C-alpha cells in the first residue's frame, strides 16, 4: 500500500479532507516529543513529524 497519497493512510493522527477528488483541509500529527532528548535514542525518530531533527520531516507530504 502506498503511504504517500491523500487516499491512503499517511499520518499518525487525524486528517480531514473533502470533495472528490479529496482535498486536504486539516491534519493533526502525533509525536512523542517536540524534540527528542532521550540519552539512548536521540536520533529524532520519536520527534513530532514537523520538528527539526525529526527523521519523518523529509517524508511529509506536500498536501499537509
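Q: What amino acid sequence fits the structure above?
A:
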Amino acid at each position: 500500500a502506498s503511504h504517500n497519497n491523500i487516499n491512503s493512510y499517511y499520518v499518525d493522527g487525524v486528517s480531514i479532507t473533502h470533495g472528490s477528488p479529496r482535498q486536504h483541509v486539516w491534519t493533526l500529527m502525533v509525536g512523542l516529543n517536540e524534540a527528542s532528548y532521550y540519552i539512548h535514542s536521540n536520533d529524532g525518530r520519536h520527534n513530532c513529524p514537523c520538528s527539526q531533527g525529526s527523521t519523518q520531516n523529509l517524508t511529509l507530504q506536500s498536501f499537509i
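Q: And what stands out in the fold?
A: Residues 1-64 form one domain.
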